[in-house]
Amino acid sequence: MTPPYEVFVGLRYLRAKRRTRTLSLNTFISITGMTLGVAALIGTLGIMTGFQEDMQEKILGTTSHVVVQERGQPSMAGSSTLLPQVESVPGVVAATPYIFKQVLLTSTTGVQGIVLRGIDPRTEPTVTDLAKNVRFGTLQDLATPRPLASSTASSSPASPVPGVILGKELAMRLGVFVGQRVNVVSPVGSVSALGMTPKIRPFQVVGLFESGMYEYDSSLAYIALDAAQQFFGLGQRVTGLEVKVEDVFAADAVAARITAVLGTRYSARDWMELNRNLFSALRLEKTMMFLLLVLITLVASFNIVGTLTMIVNEKQREIAVLKAIGATPTAIMRIFMLNGLVIGFTGTAIGIPLGYTFLYFIEHYWTFDQTVYYLSHIPVHVKALDVCLVSFSAILISFVATLYPSSQAAKLAPLSAFRYE
């Protein structure tokens, strides 16, 4: 099947004036501008998506997908009854109770306000990746109280104390390591004639964890659930339930089903709602970067406008001849629209692999010192949807850039073109 003559004429206009198969300089510049714009968009979106997913992975490695709590209450009772109901909800993988309190942690060399979480060492690994993040010790070390290492040399046997797992940065701030003592201070204690007396209890550091997020590693500590209940005087009550779901991006739907099963007395919030500000900021930043980098493609479109306008001015005689032998204004428009689309398609086709190549070198050859930064390399992930969005926007801008020059060519009168010939 023979292509329409508009294809042959349009491609011929993109080449140099001399009878060669090389592109004209203006065409080359237009394609280069479009290529760089597409590559910059692919690279930026790939890096920002990588950072977003890396942060998401670190957050979900420490916190659960869904949190269930009793509305308007600092703690909830009957967790053993609620657990089977929550685990029976479609989409739920596992659930476990937890306690969440703000306390003061002290050592011989430092004081730090932290968030103390009471967990069940047996079931916590089914809900979060905390066990994988523990660098020294294990979660099971929380289950068995043991004497302090510094007290074993005493003539009288020391009473065992419960264990605590600290974040790596938190341990550095307090100047403690595995086997050493820290004191947990709760501002809510017994009431005396002098007012409320803080409650203090010694704990032994049995492990250190590293999540990869400074906020968690510097402000989180874990103790056994029963030790937390005893220390805070909760009895059998807990703060809430941690829930793991099959699909993290469907956590909101699972949370709604959990609320429907348990009733309005309880609330279930998913991880995206709990971290709404962070992920909203990341999404807004990615959107704004996309819009700003589209300006590069818009600049390239001005090259297309200039190139096609110059072609129209240079080819007035040829356009007049085409019209004289029967070419319609629509056919003339198609010729120059084809030119712009060829530039757009070519720039996009070269820019996409160029962007992938840029990301490959960024990911594999640009490394960081992990003693300073919390990552060893820049995380990269390119989504197919982002590639389609970049390609569509580049080709659309290329097409819009052809409208004015092609309409001017279609309006050209043959007699005015031949007047000075």
Quick structural gist:
By secondary structure, the chain is of the alpha+beta class.
Describe the structure.
By secondary structure, the protein is of the alpha+beta class. The protein has two domains: 5-58 and 279-418, no CATH class; 72-263, no CATH class. 51% of the residues lie in helices and 19% in strands. The chain is built from 14 helices and ten strands. The chain has helices at 5-14, 25-62, 79-87, 130-133, 168-174, 214-217, 225-232, 251-262, 271-274, 276-314, 316-324, 329-365, 384-411, 414-418; strands at residues 66-70, 92-106, 111-119, 134-136, 163-167, 181-192, 195-209, 220-224, 240-245, 266-270. A six-stranded mixed β-barrel has the order 2-3-8-5-7-6. Strand 2 and strand 3 form a beta hairpin. Helix 10 packs parallel to helix 13. The radius of gyration is 33 Å and the shape is elongated.
